Amino acid sequence: MAGVRDPPSELQIRVHSRRGGNIIHPVEVETPQLSSSAPTPVVYREVKHFKNWFPWLIPAFVVANVIMLVITMYVNDCPKNSVSCLARFLGRFSFQPFKENPLLGPSSTTLEKMGALDVSKVVDKHQGWRLITCIWLHGGVFHLLANMLSLLVIGIRLEQEFGFVRIGLLYVISGLGGSLFSALFIQSNISVGASGALFGLLGGMLSELITNWTIYANKAAALLTLVVIIVINLAVGILPHVDNFAHIGGFLSGFLLGFVFLIRPQFGWVSQRYASPGYSSVSANPKFKAYQCILWITSLILLITGFTVGLVLVLRGVDLNDHCSWCHYLTCVPTSRWSCNTGPVSCMSEQISDQLTLTCSSSGKSRTYILLNATTSQIQGLCAQLCN
């Protein structure tokens, strides 16, 4: 018909039509049949493999972590279980003394009760669930703020690009990897925090940058963001209750998982995949490049092997500090203001009238307190302060 244009024989893929963050998104272009007298509009439809997801899982993780800290502080009840507390006006939500916990948080006893990673309980009492529950606990307000702000910055962008399923799996599996690595080094102290899972997202972001290198518009900005967040969290990691071994284990797990979960197809394959039925290409483009496939296979093998070996070593109670005498400084540097001994402690107690005398079982330090009819919780709190 003379008044109608023929439809185009080829479906085009615009590469620079829409941008999200530092990644370039291809968009499918359609040209509908219209009268020749009217201008031809271009209709854009999002390509399935580069869909922009609505982020809800990462914010839900943040809310869950905040709720868990509130519940932990409620259970801690410092005024009832300790002689001295910080911010006592908060009532049972007040914090343990700074010397005991510089992160403004609960006692080690409470964290252990709530599900902190305690290797002895994992090995001897078969409480393997602690490898997962410790991911949702934090040592205090400072610890929580550092992790959650970083999680929002990194996690939301990744969930927008790759969806909640892949990022959720990346988060949880990396957290487990961090717990396993931590359990191989931290034998006497407890460990808590989402740092392993967070560093898994950072590791996944790095491997995504490598495997999808050609689709990044600003590689320098992406690398700078990674470096800044890693440095901040490693600096926090030298404080008690924060576990740099979990950081390392989570980062390595996430780095390998990124090559498995966060791989993207080539633009050439996407162009062919969404081309019109009548369009034929001289040479078919593969969905993934050769190096992407090699990294995918290698990473999957390393992940399966690493998790299997790590789990076996943890359940056998292996302590890798026997092979590395200085590695413990990677997770905590002791100072005059705090101790790196964050594990449960015990004391010998003697009550004479209104005088309570405690002797730390580990260090032998002794001190007398003016306290009448001290409760078990109060004795435990004073013992923690004395031994630390």
Shape descriptor reads elongated
> pLDDT below 50 for ≥5 consecutive residues: which ranges?
1-31, 40-46
Instruction: Please estimate the helix content.
Output: 40-55%
Radius of gyration: 27 Å
Mean pLDDT metric: 78
Description:
The protein is mainly alpha-helical and 388 residues long. 47% of the residues lie in helices and 10% in strands. It has 13 helices and six strands. It has helices at residues 57-76, 78-81, 108-114, 119-124, 130-133, 141-162, 164-183, 195-211, 219-236, 244-261, 267-273, 290-315, 376-387; strands spanning 13-20, 23-30, 43-46, 347-352, 355-360, 366-370. The strands form two sheets. The protein has a three-stranded antiparallel sheet, covered by helices on one side. α1 packs antiparallel against α6, α6 (141-162) packs across α7 and α10 packs antiparallel against α12 (290-315). It is elongated, with a radius of gyration of 27 Å. It is a multi-pass membrane protein. The chain crosses the membrane at residues 53-74, 135-156, 168-186, 192-213, 220-239, 245-263, 293-315. Keywords: Hydrolase, Membrane, Protease, Serine protease, Transmembrane, Transmembrane helix. Pfam families: Rhomboid. It is an enzyme of class 3 (hydrolase).
